[in-house]
Amino acid sequence: MKTCLTIAGSDASGGAGIQADLKTFAAHGIYGMSVIVAVVAENTCEVRSVMDVSPQVIRDQIDCVMTDIPPDAVKIGMLSSQASMQAVADGLAAHRPKNVVIDPVMLAKDGSELMAPEALTLFKTGILPHATVFTPNIPEAEVLTGMTIRTEEDMRKAAKILLDMGAQTVLVKGGHLEGEAIDILDDGQSVHRFESARIQTKNTHGTGCTLSSAIAANLANGHSPAEAVQGAKAYITDAIAHSLALGKGNGPTHHFYRLYNEGLAWIED
């Protein structure tokens, strides 16, 4: 069985973070493992509080997994503090895992800040260069590049800048622009354009986490970055189209819709 490791924060409501990543891995037939860097008191309406795990425990978690069950792919999500980010950077430098997908989680759906501003420089120098696939949305790409992104051409320029920062492949997600949803993937050799119709729903909690972990699962299963992104986009589109109206705010996507609708004889029996 292929294996994936997620390094991220938890989500008490189960729609994003570690919980979303593990569900996504399972939906792709992957054995999932986790390094928790922060415990987040969160639901579909708000992020109430965040408690960072100590850097030593973060590094110990990474070492325990890497030395016993080396993952076929790693997904990195929320790194809220400079100290936790340094622990992850040290772990990546020590173990050099293959197939690293990095989702720069900076803001929650409610606008809550999930990455300390003082950690941005370390992110650029210690985390981003490890990315096999880097998956910023437009606000995150703007912070990292210092440019304003309003058009598809801007997205292409931002991807080039992020490649120059060390990422092997960059996926700039265009969900924040008007019109059809367009994502740009640049691997330094060619540019791929992914276009899809927008799904009218407010239940999109954890979509970024789910997409990036699906990319990691596809890389672990032997697909190229472009193939991994294409498959992940099909998966997240399906999950959003059948999202769950749970909670009072932005509900979660349906990570197991395909499985549930292809028959669960093992449950029915």
TrEMBL record:
Protein name per Swiss-Prot or TrEMBL: Hydroxymethylpyrimidine/phosphomethylpyrimidine kinase
Top EC class for this record: transferase
Species the sequence originates in: Peptococcus niger
Annotated EC: 2.7.1.49, 2.7.4.7
Pathway: Cofactor biosynthesis; thiamine diphosphate biosynthesis; 4-amino-2-methyl-5-diphosphomethylpyrimidine from 5-amino-1-(5-phospho-D-ribosyl)imidazole: step 3/3; Cofactor biosynthesis; thiamine diphosphate biosynthesis; 4-amino-2-methyl-5-diphosphomethylpyrimidine from 5-amino-1-(5-phospho-D-ribosyl)imidazole: step 2/3
Family recorded in the similarity comment: Belongs to the ThiD family.
UniProt keywords, alphabetically: ATP-binding, Kinase, Nucleotide-binding, Thiamine biosynthesis, Transferase
InterPro entries named in the record: HMP/HMP-P_kinase_dom, PM/HMP-P_kinase-1, Ribokinase-like
Single Gene Ontology MF annotation: hydroxymethylpyrimidine kinase activity
Boundaries of every Pyridoxamine kinase/Phosphomethylpyrimidine kinase domain copy: 11-254
